[in-house]
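Work package 3, deliverable 3.1, input record:
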Amino acid sequence: MTIHPTRIDDVGERELLRRLQLRIPEAPGVPVGVGDDTALVEVPSPALVTVDSLVEDVHFRRESAPARLLGRKALAINLSDVAAMGGVGRHAIVSLCLPPDLELAWVDSLYDGLLERAAEAGVAIVGGNVSRSPGPIVIDVTLIGESRGPLLRSGATPGDLVVVTGELGAAAEGFRLLEQGARLDEGGELAAAPAWTEPLGEAVELCVWAHLDPRPPLVLAGSLAERGLAAAGMDLSDGLSSDLADMCRQSGVGALVDAMAVPVAGPVLELERLRGGDALALALHGGEDYELLMAVDPGDFEALEELARVWGVSVTPIGEFLEGPPDVRLTDADGGRELRPGGHDHFAAGEGPAE
Amino acid sequence: MTIHPTRIDDVGERELLRRLQLRIPEAPGVPVGVGDDTALVEVPSPALVTVDSLVEDVHFRRESAPARLLGRKALAINLSDVAAMGGVGRHAIVSLCLPPDLELAWVDSLYDGLLERAAEAGVAIVGGNVSRSPGPIVIDVTLIGESRGPLLRSGATPGDLVVVTGELGAAAEGFRLLEQGARLDEGGELAAAPAWTEPLGEAVELCVWAHLDPRPPLVLAGSLAERGLAAAGMDLSDGLSSDLADMCRQSGVGALVDAMAVPVAGPVLELERLRGGDALALALHGGEDYELLMAVDPGDFEALEELARVWGVSVTPIGEFLEGPPDVRLTDADGGRELRPGGHDHFAAGEGPAE
């Protein structure tokens, strides 16, 4: 018998795999699920296929990210990519690298989150792998989805509106707050916060949650693609400035953004006002918003707004696409300036989780 | 300008991704390849889906595994899984975690190997991701394949022959030799070998290659599944003793293996004779053979043998499946004994690359 808390190396790789496999529910259209050399799955064709990873000390820290929320997020960031192509996630494959001294309870919580988020999104987990890691935890999810579009990054044309869903900057603020010591307790309530945020506990909690449990507008995305209400789309993961630059490059157009129109998240405005910081910069460059960035024909905007209202999502025009080189300009109270990609780059970042 | 050799953090994540994307050829049936939020791919349905990882200091060491061969192997181990289900690989998604100080030339070589192996197998690389790693290199490949079977682990019945392809033990011996200092030069020739192996340079080279560049019997696997010549199948990755135990467990049968019939690889016999070691143990427990383990109806064996001959693969009956509890027994010159799963377990292993 082992002494509690049980660690992965107490039970071994095969037993861990079997334990996880037992938790994965059978799903329709999956004649062979986990447990054989491969899964056998009835997939949509053409299929959307994507992969994204969460790496310890790059995307999260073990001490500040509850395992259950990491499980949710590992799936959510892939659901966001599929949604941004105008599709709906269907089948997920989970590959984990885990240090041998990790507690089994941590892996169980991670799977709680994965399974819960999968159920919410109607996704079946159909395969997986577990490897030993000599250091960091790596959570790699591949997602197969059904196309309702596709909604490409390259479809923007001059005259289209630059439109974003939701509000921006909260996830980046949340990441900063976690690095400064903000913590959730097991029930998801704020258990600790940096001293300077004292009067704004609720704002801190909202930002931390935005970082740990992103909620991309999945249903809206599939629905608008079906109706052809966007000419181009992608998800905001690296930060508006970087992502819009990429859409411009892939579409061969420029863009002009009105700084006053950018929907900065309320809690970020409150916190940055208190701190004397720059809320707009977080919304422009912060990253991990997992909202949609779209090019929308002005004639379609009203229909898009109506559809978004049905799904409880806000859509905001923040500028327009222009003829010319693939540059982004920002107009603000001081006039105009070039908006250079300022999102995170994991390799350039050098140290700590990137935003 | 940066000073050579260029490292990943000299160019940054986006530039690295763009660089890799430029190298991936367009493929038929892939309307949207790499570079958007997801790929859009015409996939077979039902599809075989699997994922497997190579983790630095668990599955390989950077100083002894040439990057090009790692690229080949990362794909090969997944091709082996798809083959073992009686299928053929079609689309691969590559997720890399790379330390920022890694040389760009290393990543280029890795992709040389991936693209080369993909071309050999008729596989299109349709997506990928690159993350920063705070430590080890992690190469994660998800493979989607076309089913010709499926060939499950659970199909063995009492009376079926236990059959393996190829010869066993060379990859495990090769791993040991690499740990003892064996090295290939850039041209793939043996450049260094442990002193004790001195008279057996060719055997060392064969074993090292078996470990670094596994060649699963892909075509035979798809072909025999189509013809229904095996009742159950899986690939030998963890070692015969572990894998056969799993097939027995999933099929609800026992098995009796004749030690004298196990096809131990010639170079392993030579090396272990010289060293005074146990060649059979390597063949039974070593792992990473990436050969096929099958349950074959005795009435089908002749047809299987004929088909295998066409594809230049040897097939060897090494025992039979029996009624009873899912245990494996081994008969040898000393009589009979229980063959307990002795393959590697990454978590139990504790230190160094697992075999």
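The two ends of chain B are 42 Å apart (CA to CA).
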